[in-house]
Specification:
474 residues, alpha+beta, Cytochrome p450, 5-stranded mixed β-sheet, 17 helices, globular
Length: 474
Amino acid sequence: MTDHDTVSAAECGPAGDLDIPAPPLRGAWPLLGHAPALLRDPLALLAEAGRTGPLTVVRLGPVAAYVVTGPDLVRQVLVTDAARYDKGFQFDALRRLIGDGVGTSRGAKHRRNKRMLRPAFDRTSSRVHARNMTPQIEGFLDAQWDPAADPDGRTAPDGRPVIDAAVDLRVLSMRLITNSMSGSELAADEVMRALPGLLSGIGRRALLPVRALDLLPTPGNRRFDRSLRRVHAVADDMVARERERAAHGDAAAGGGSSLAAWLAAVDEDGTGMTDEQAHDEIMTLLLAGTETTAGVMAWCLYVLARDSELQQRVRLEIADVTGGKRLEPADMRRLELAERVVKEVLRLYPPGWLIGRRAMEETRLGNTRIPAGSQVLVNFYALQRDPAAFHDPDAFDPDRWKSLDQAAVAPYYLPFGSGPRVCLGEMYGMAEIFCVLCAILARYRLEPVPGTTVRPVARTTLHPDTVPLRLTRL
């Protein structure tokens, strides 16, 4: 036996299996561990973890966490051994803040929530919502973007030379989701007033499992608490209004909304959705659903504005498929180039860039023993930039999807997750993205603003901080 083959008893698990500890990530601070790096530049930290190996260990203050980047190990956590894992500390923080909806609930409650909500997000419902979206999108553009789009490309009469797509698409996405949920956009503006500070605060709380920081009476914590109360009040009001409509038999007023369907639904035991559950599902969609799709759409406009030739190719494809008319749900599958653009954006900028799990029992990942209660972080950001699957992985190249072996790259491309906790709103979100892109590209030429820098912000989702654009009406 060579020195390489010598294994100490301490390196073997209880059944005698080889136990090789995961390598620790470099750069840990005394006491704080990798927490400063995670807050300062989380994407650099995750990229370094991916380069270090398929499984690494980071310290977040006193908490050790396993960062999983290897595709086989990611599948083990999300699919093969999914029942061995609970949602991690990220979701503990979110649960305290937004409630126990489908995005944060666990076990049997998660399965029940998902079954009750699934009809509102299936292909048929998403197509119905898509038909309703385009008129809303056009109305938003009429009011918000047309004044900034002088036909000759000059500064708008009101002195507003550019729009910030990152901000505006968040507003638009909020209006679309509130309309889909309740048949009205009235709640959107109230939520938007509280949203920026709320998302920033939630993102920090979800990244670091140090609750004591949240309880300090700082001005930032007080502002966050006020904003959170405002959004909770909006959710309560939406549930109360829908219950009142149903009590008076005014089903038409709900406009076939998702919320009306939720409150009318019953599970296999004949039990309906409580007001509390409906409230928690609204909170989940208002915060997570809005930021997710808005970020993807903003990234799409960012990359298209930087490449005028690609932008024109997508525009011509849209015109050819739609015949210059409004996009129909059946048209979406024919937008092959637009689909590749969205896929490449989702690869480079996955909204769910990092997802936490907790081992409910002692288990193994490869040759490493994972103690019960350990935090496990699935590193989607580095997984989807793995050079083993994607040539020149940091480059934006939508045409790579024409030649890629789809089966070979599937383990590396998981923008909506995988396994029993895969994103419920995938079809709705994709319908929204295509409707918005088609409406914008059919109306405007997009140009980046010289001298501006767009930076990724990795908190609850991975979104751009700002996307300043010049618009020219076509």
